[in-house]
Amino acid sequence: MTITVKNTEEVKLMREAGKLASSVLDMIEEYIKPGITTEELDHICHNFIISDLNAIPAPLNYKGFPKSICTSLNHVVCHGIPSDRVLKDEDIINIDITVIKNGFHGDTSRMFTVGQTSVMANRLINACHKAMWVGIEKVRPGCFLGDIGFAIQSYTESQRFSVVREYCGHGIGKNFHEDPQVLHYGSPHTGIELREGMTITIEPMINAGKRAVKLLNDGWTVVTKDRSLSAQWEHTILVTKDSFEVLTISPEEKLNHV
Questions:
Q1: What is the sign, positive or negative, of the torsion defined by CA atoms of 174, 238, 135, 90?
Q2: Residues near 221 by Cβ (< 8 Å), separated by ≥ 6?
Q3: Long-range contacts of 242-248 (CB under 8 A, 24+ apart)
Q4: Domain residues for 15?
Q5: Is residue 169 part of a domain?
Q6: For position 183, which CATH number holds?
Q7: pLDDT attached to residue 168
Q8: Residue 76, strand partner residues
Q9: Is residue 115 a contact partner of residue 90, using CB atoms and an 8 Å limit?
Q10: pLDDT at 56 over 90
Q11: Would residue 2 count as lying in a domain?
Q12: Confidence band (pLDDT; 50, 70, 90) for 10?
């Protein structure tokens, strides 16, 4: 396993990439409403990343992925491919953005609601957001990846939801996916010990029903087997000298979280 530890200049570049990725999600929010297709959302994000940010949409052609963003609707867990699917009232959608700027990746995703959504959908979205933060707040030098996974799993299950186990967070930097894998379940004091300068994503996927998932025939789209709703949030995290820094946090989320 090769884990990259970023130096001061690399951390600066990671901050820039993270800030740009977050700005795409800030930009696209106003477009998420009934009547728009996920393909239209992809086009808007693609053009913004290329033209406004002078950056590269990392998912496009990554291992054959055909679009610039992932759009995961309702019971889609992750890696949903933008299409002619029209958003309608009561939908929930995860938009996953990764940009490359000056050779470094910023990776983040956020849940959005379309019109009026159910009480269950809102509870799931909020619980997933909280679960992500419960994991993030464990991050510091000397913390183990198992501590993060255990915190996320414990909180999620206390809310009577389930954690997807087949997909996880990861190291990130010059490469989209680096070591280590960051599981969203586990046992305390197990796994890799975090060190200052490491950058990882924490991106729990939680289901309203059972945790079982399946991969569709397109080779990308992952759905819940029981067709229950699924939610995901993601941030890119830097391990600092004595704590953490969220590289993809928006000004609004930072204000609300503090």
A1: negative
A2: 72, 76, 79, 80, 81, 215
A3: 242/140, 242/141, 243/139, 243/140, 244/136, 244/137, 244/139, 244/140, 246/136, 247/14, 247/15, 247/17, 247/18, 247/19, 247/106, 247/199, 248/18, 248/19, 248/21, 248/22, 248/106, 248/107, 248/108
A4: 8-257
A5: yes
A6: 3.90.230.10
A7: 97
A8: 223
A9: yes
A10: yes
A11: no
A12: very high
Residue 54 counted as domain residue: yes
- Give the tokens for residue 12: 């600066």
* Tally of domains in the chain: 1
- Tell me the pTM: 0.96
Report the candidate in 156, 43, 39, 24 with the shortest Cα–Cα distance to residue 96: 24
Is residue 202 within a helix (H) or strand (E), and if so which, with residue range? strand 199-202
Task: Please check whether residue 75 lies inside any domain of the structure.
Answer: yes
State the Cα–Cα distance between residues 109 and 132, nearest whole angstrom.
Answer: 11
Which amino acid belongs to residue 99? Answer: V
